[in-house]
Amino acid sequence: MQDCLFCRIVRGELPAAKVHEDELVLAFKDIQPQRPVHVLVIPKKHITSLAQATEDDTEVLGRMLVVANRIAVDQGSPDGFRSIINTGSIGGQEVMHVHMHVVGGQEPVGPMLKR
Ligand code: 5GP
Ligand code: ZN
Prior knowledge:
- By secondary structure, this protein is an alpha+beta fold.
- It has helices spanning about 5-10, 60-75, 90; strands at about 20, 25-30, 35-45, 80-85, 100-105.
- The protein has a single domain (about 5-105), classed as HIT family, subunit A (2-Layer Sandwich).
- The chain has three helices and five strands; from the N terminus they run αβββαβαβ.
- A five-stranded antiparallel sheet has the order 1-2-3-5-4, with helices on one face.
- β1 and β2 form a beta hairpin.
- The model has no long low-confidence stretch (mean pLDDT about 95).
- The structure holds guanosine-5'-monophosphate and zinc ion.
- The site of zinc ion has 6 residues, from α1.
């Protein structure tokens, strides 16, 4: 995925404030944080969205969930966090490479959805 923004971050072609990396996933701070803690956790391999995910992606998607708490604690959200994966136009996905937002801080994140 030559032109994908997040693939370029994985390849080191674009800078990012990395907070976690392992063989399957990369996590870095969101460029426009919505809360004091706002990290994006992404698969290193290109998956366009959850709508394109397959059985083969089970391990990497599981890893994204498993590393989230450690990242949240490390970044200053010790008492919980919210994880959000936007999918497609209905879900409000803007970057077409699967990413999980981990948002939190010292204060509650707020209502799950705008009413
Ligand atoms: P989405 O709406 O697709 O779920 O969220 C995309 C997120 O990616 C947004 O929160 C946006 O601020 C973040 N983002 C977009 N471009 C960049 C970038 O170049 N670097 C970083 N670190 N975050 C980005
Ligand atoms: Zn990509």
